[in-house]
Write a structure and sequence with these properties.
The chain contains nine helices and six strands, in the order ααβββααβααααββα. It is mainly alpha-helical.
């Protein structure tokens, strides 16, 4: 990665999944604080002021502004806060707070919940809905950023309250039931049930209130699994395609690896064993 640094970054993406924000937290995970700071060096120079804070492009020249952890402002906030804490850089933490303030100002759920639109202006694509609930573009992922901020700034109870609001919105949303085509058609870690299970297990460890909902999610994953002599796998759905069952995937985001990781952690928690992940991911704050 160091050999490919071009003086500004690695590509023209700002986001966590495909861009420099993800490289920053990966560098932290590898213990390379200098590389992590290089990865976030561009963000102070590329902010866009908003009514209540700052935001960033997804990539240079892109028009929609996305807000959540996977491709939007909160993913950048996560990287800035994590690197700022590790490097003792208050300037980076302050920039993270300005980005978080922008997203919080967009909440449409009121004081008891937390729900922010996918993008503004709304990204025009037939498969993108205005509101989502998973890790990637919804409160299940937003809560992970607020969990990190509550660890970076433990004297500010507002972040823990935002985690509670995200949790309430997720639980009240109706998932993992699928009351209409397209509402909840994904089992995976990124956009589906496994990513919500990650938050439910965090709640179980930190707040003691996630057990029942975690059991619902696990039961749903079990019901949607396909098993045969070769093992177990999951297919996601695309109701606009025929056939609707997509081919099973193996990876972290949409496939078996991400689902299995969360099921293993749930099994350990249920058995009163170590609640931490055997292999931590840098985009997920450890439970206290």
């Amino acid at each position: 990665m160091r050999s490919r640094y071009d003086g500004a970054g690695w590509n023209d993406y700002y986001e966590l999944i495909a861009g420099n924000a993800g490289i920053a937290i990966a560098a932290l995970e590898c213990g390379d604080l200098d590389l992590a700071q290089l990865a976030v060096d561009r963000y102070p120079r590329t902010t866009e002021p908003s009514t209540c804070g700052v935001q960033w492009e997804i990539r240079a020249g892109a028009v929609p502004r996305l807000h959540h952890i996977s491709h939007g402002t909160l993913g950048i906030v996560y990287a800035l806060a994590a690197v700022g804490r590790a490097a003792d850089r208050p300037d980076l933490v302050d920039l993270a707070l300005a980005g978080a303030a922008d997203v919080v100002s967009r909440d449409e759920a009121g004081p008891e919940g937390f729900l922010v639109a996918h993008s503004d202006p709304q990204q025009q694509h037939e498969k993108i809905e205005r509101h989502n609930y998973g890790w990637c573009h919804g409160p299940a992922g937003d809560a992970q950023v607020f969990r990190l901020l509550s660890q970076v700034l433990p004297d500010d109870p507002g972040w823990a309250h935002l985690v509670d609001r995200c949790w309430r919105t997720v639980v009240d949303s109706g998932l993992p039931r699928r009351p209409r085509p397209g509402f909840w058609d994904n089992n995976g870690r990124c956009c589906g049930t496994a990513g919500v299970l990650a938050l439910a297990c965090d709640r179980q460890v930190e707040r003691g209130d996630g057990s029942d909902f975690a059991d619902v999610l696990v039961a749903d994953l079990a019901a949607r699994a396909s098993a045969d002599g070769d093992g177990v796998r999951w297919s996601n759905l695309e109701h606009r395609e025929t056939p609707s069952d997509l081919a099973p995937a193996t990876g972290w985001a949409m496939g078996n690896a991400g689902i299995i990781r969360e099921l293993l952690r749930h099994a350990r928690i249920t058995a009163n064993r170590d609640p931490r992940y055997a292999v931590p991911f840098p985009d997920h704050p450890p439970t206290d």
